[in-house]
């Protein structure tokens, strides 16, 4: 299959077109105008938030979406202990979080003087994920379609946070997406809600949120909380390794980014492979290759997983694909599959302990799918 000569995205990747010169539309920045418009809006909102004075009508300056991952832990510490913000640390208890994430949240509660609140809705988020994984996506696909389950899950708990802030008149919601994610996420509160309606329709959206979203859709603009992306200010200096090192020095982080992946990470890769013939992190890997080609003498990482320069990413993608589809089809030797997965993830700079932890999640993929009512294709035909 033809691939981009710069970033190695396949011609079949959703939302990507390969030109006659062998260079894809992303490398040519065909979506640059839309991304820059989003960037400008998020930048203005961040600057407005940092300059804002405490709202006398609200008990908190912001609702801070705290997941327990490295990015949100790093920024929660800064907002409370350096910026002096009155923070409501909002954690949506996603039923797919790893045990390592829960430990990071416990450490933050002990060391960061914020107000912590825990929200949950297991039945509805599982129903939504079951719907996403079991539907057949439309072809040829749009940009980010290979990440639809992840994007849908994130949208679900972002909307829960919007409702929480809206009811309590909290003026800002802080969302710690990394710099690459920021440019592919909706930054307008009302548009987040509209996007969910477009994806899931009025009936299912109404069931999942018990009809409460109508009030948000028709509220006055000044009543709606605004979304802030704090990493917009450090987009060129974003360094996941440094962030982890700083957090560990403060006793706020005990794991690695691989170990705090959600437990659906194997199923997310399955979805990407079987529907779009790519690994879940293919856009991230392509961004890595693109930046290396353009700036070969400097290390740049604009996303949460830093890909080693020496990694043979096309080979890693194909190796992971074989294992994922074999597990989905209940084929092969689990012991050999574990060895293969550990080797793949250590080549992506995970420690052996972290790689073994992730590998165990992949080997349990069929059990995870059965628990959620997700039907796996056993033929492994992909696209």
Task: Write structural notes for this entry.
By secondary structure, this protein is mostly helical. Helix content is 50%, strand content 5%. It contains 15 helices and five strands. It has a five-stranded parallel sheet with strand order 3-2-1-4-5, sandwiched between helices. The longest helix is centred in the middle third of the chain and has 21 residues. The radius of gyration is 21 Å and the shape is globular. About 2% of the residues have low confidence.
Summarize the structure.
With 383 residues, the protein is mostly helical.
Task: Pick out its properties.
mainly alpha, 383 residues, 5 strands, 5-stranded parallel beta sheet, 15 helices
Topology:
Blueprint: H1 32-51, E1 62-65, H2 70-81, E2 87-92, H3 99-111, E3 115-119, H4 122-134, H5 148-168, E4 172-174, H6 179-182, H7 189-208, H8 213-217, E5 226-228, H9 240-249, H10 265-276, H11 282-294, H12 313-328, H13 334-347, H14 352-363, H15 365-372
Parallel strand pairs: 1-2, 1-4, 2-3, 4-5
Helix pairs in contact: 2-9, 4-5, 5-7, 10-12, 12-13, 13-14
Q: What percent of the residues sit in helical stretches (DSSP H or I)? A: 40-55%
How much beta, percentage-wise? 5-15%
- Secondary-structure-based class equals mainly alpha
Number of strands: 5
In spatial order, strands of the major sheet run 3-2-1-4-5
Which radius of gyration do the C-alpha atoms yield?
A: 21 Å
Largest sheet: 5 strands, parallel
Dominant shape: globular
Secondary-structure element pattern, one letter each: HEHEHEHHEHHHEHHHHHHH
| Low-pLDDT stretches | 297-304
Distance between the terminal alpha carbons, to the nearest Å? 12 Å
Mean pLDDT over the residues: 86
The number of helices is: 15
Quaternary form: single chain
């Amino acid at each position: 299959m033809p691939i981009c000569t710069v970033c190695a995205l396949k011609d079949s990747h959703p939302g990507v077109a390969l030109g006659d010169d062998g260079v894809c539309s992303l490398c040519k920045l065909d979506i640059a105008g839309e991304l820059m418009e989003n960037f400008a809006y998020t930048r203005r909102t961040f600057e407005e938030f940092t300059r804002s004075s405490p709202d006398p009508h609200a008990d908190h300056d912001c609702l801070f979406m705290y997941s327990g991952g490295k990015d949100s832990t790093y920024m929660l510490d800064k907002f409370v202990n350096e910026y002096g913000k009155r923070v409501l640390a909002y954690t949506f208890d996603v039923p797919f979080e790893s045990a390592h994430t829960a430990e990071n949240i416990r450490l933050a509660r002990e060391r960061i003087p914020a107000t912590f609140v825990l929200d949950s809705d297991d039945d509805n988020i599982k129903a939504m994920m079951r719907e996403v994984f079991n539907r057949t996506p439309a072809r040829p696909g749009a940009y980010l379609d290979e990440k639809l389950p992840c994007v849908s899950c994130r949208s679900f708990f972002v909307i829960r946070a919007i409702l929480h802030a809206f009811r309590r008149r909290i003026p800002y919601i802080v969302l710690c997406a990394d710099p690459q994610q920021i440019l592919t996420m909706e930054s307008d509160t009302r548009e987040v809600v509209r996007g969910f309606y477009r994806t899931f329709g009025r009936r299912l959206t109404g069931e999942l949120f018990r009809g409460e979203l109508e009030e948000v859709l028709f509220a006055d603009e000044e009543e709606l909380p605004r979304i802030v992306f704090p990493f917009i200010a450090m987009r060129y200096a974003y360094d996941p390794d440094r962030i982890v090192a700083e957090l560990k020095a403060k006793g706020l982080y005990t794991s690695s980014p691989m170990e705090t992946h959600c437990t659906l990470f194997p199923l997310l890769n399955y979805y990407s492979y079987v529907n779009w013939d790519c690994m879940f992190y293919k856009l991230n890997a392509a961004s890595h290759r693109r930046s290396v080609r353009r700036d070969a003498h400097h290390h740049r990482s604009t996303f949460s997983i830093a890909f080693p320069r020496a990694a043979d990413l096309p080979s890693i993608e194909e190796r992971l694909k074989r294992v994922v589809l074999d597990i989905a089809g209940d084929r092969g030797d689990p012991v050999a599959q574990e060895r293969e997965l550990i080797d793949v993830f250590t080549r992506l700079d995970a420690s052996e302990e972290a790689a073994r932890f992730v590998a165990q999640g992949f080997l349990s993929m069929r059990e995870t799918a059965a628990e959620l009512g997700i039907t796996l294709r056993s033929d492994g035909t992909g696209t």
